Every structure is written in structure tokens, then in C-alpha cells.
User: Fold this.
Amino acid sequence: MITKRIIVCMALALLFAFGTAVAGTIGNSSSEVIYESELRSAIAVQEGNQDDLFALPGVVAVGVGVAQDGITPALHVYFNEAIPQASITAVPTQLEGVPVRVFETETIRALDGPPGPHHRLSFKFPVPMGVSTGNPNGLFAGTLGARVHYRGQPNAVGYITNNHVAAASGPGLCPASVNPENLPQFGLRQCQPGRLDAGGACVREIGGLFKVVPIIMANTDAMDNVVPSNSFQNTVDTAFIASSRNLVKRSVLDITAGISPELDSQAIGLGVRKSGRTTGFTRSRIQSINVLVAVNYGGSPQNPCGTALFQGQIVIVSTTPGSPFSAAGDSGSLILGRRDSLGRRKAVGLLFAGSPSVTVANRIADVFGSLGVRIDVPR
Assistant:
């Protein structure tokens, strides 16, 4: 069985550069929102066939969404656009009666993003979410996600971002992982802005690393291709930073004064928005859910971090040509969906990887469940 060439390559210190989709129309022209409960049959077909689909040369991700009509449930298969067209056309048009829709995307590269808006600046305490952060271990920057507290401990306040933002360390700035061992330094101070945006210095401390979910890297074959059937499937790239309400705000810059304690349900076609270090405020829609994706954490040739498989992910696409939903440095951004009865935006996911037209996010329920936290609301 031929395993796929790894491509959904995520910039380790969230500095990922993205590619464009060329096959199929990225985005759903329909305004209809389709919930996960309506896609159960398609999800079952996906999960029964995704290892075989991943074995095709160039496949980077497999998920569920809708067909070109914007209504019919379909499998979504994402290819590296560098793969010959013959390989792409070899994909079946349907599996077990479910249509298969193919998308192409450029290789994701671990590169610094373009200069961003004011989200890169230093902010007075308390600092809003959606702005630059990082740790002192390297010259990089990511994004503050959401102010939270531990469940049942309302005074244990901090914020969430990605593992590879808060806990990156070592020669390759690898995320905290268990194979190879790259354990986090608990208490590691966190900076605002990240050193990349502060002339190389950690000028303002906003908290210390308290909890991180290790990332288990995938098994690879002799050609350095991921073997999905023999690899652990991660669900989140996240960390909790102990801080205080005097240091971080509950507001998200350019979006909302406060996040709802309710979580939103992922759904195809759901309108979402985020505030990030590099691209600031952007809006788009969810294209695929329940996505299995290979994420390359970069590093250096001498110190590669490895590639990890993530299951149950959300894929968001840009609906505005030439205007990506996210870019390098937006890792850690909270993705927000609908409003609650009080008008507050509800969280959908936590951004951690992508391309110019494709953004990958953890489900927010998985993030909160793995860390044992909830949104911190005023008291």
C-alpha cells in the first residue's frame, strides 16, 4: 500500500504559510448550515475508508462536508497540488453511495507570515485576546486564544493557546511531545507580544505555562511517509497558561467584549470569525468536519520535530479570493461562531494549522475537555 506524502505541514512556532485550492470550488455557495447529526452516514463511510484514501499519493486530509450542490453529504479529500493529475483523477467519484469531492492545496511551509496589523503590538494590562504572544525559547509569535478558568475553580484563571506556541522548545522549537521526548518546562514564562514582534526580547510577561497536552508524532515508513493505520491520532494542539484577570482580558480584539460560556456546534457552512496576530479580524465558513489530517511540525534538518496525525478536526476555507482566513502567526486564535441569547459569540474551535485557503482547527469541546477549563465570565 502506498502511503501519502506528508504535506499538511504546520509551522512549528505557528509560523505557517499557506497554499491555494485549485480543484473543486473551495467554499460552499449555499447559505444552508448542515449539522454533524445530518452527516452521520457519510462520517461512517469516511472512517471506514480514510486509511485507504490516505494511502493515495499526495492525500493530506480526509473529512466530511457537502457535494458541489451544497446540500448532499460528501467525503472531502484534500490533495497536494504538486501531485500529478492522474493520481487525483484516480480517486473514486463515490464510496458506498457517498459522493467524493476532491480539493487541491499547496504544500504548507514553515515560514514567517507577512507583517500583520496592530495585533502584533504591545498592549497595556490587561491584554485582550487575539494578539501576539510567545515564549522566550525562540524568535516566533502566535496568538492569545481565550481567557478561561479551571472547572470548579473560578479563581484559577489563565488563557489558552497552542502547545506549539506556549511550550515550543529545543533547537527546532518543537512542541511538547512524547515521541521523541520533548517535555515542557512548566512555569515557562509567556510573553506579549511574542519575541518576533518585540525586537527579539520578552518585554512583558503575562503568565506561566501550567498545563499542556503532549503531541504524539506519527510513525513513518522508509520514505518518511506517515502510516495512518499505525499512528496515534491526536485531537488537540493546546496549552493552558496560568495568569490573572489583571493581566488578560476576556475580550477578543476587534470581535467581542466577552465570549459566551456556551460552546457552538460545528456545522458545514457555519459562518465563523477569528482575531489573530497576523491577519487580524477575518470571517469565513466551515467547509469540512471530522477531518483526519497530517501535520508536519517542521524544525530543522538536523532537529526535525516530526509529523502528527490529528482526528476530528475542522477545516475552514477562505470565501474571499486573495484574502486568506488565516496566515503564519495566527496559531492559537479562537474561532467564534453564532451568538448566544445575550449577544455574546460562542467558541467553535482553536486554530492551529492551515494554508492560504485552508485553515485547520481543533474542536473547542476537545480543547476544553483536555485541559479541564471553561470560558471565564465576569463575576
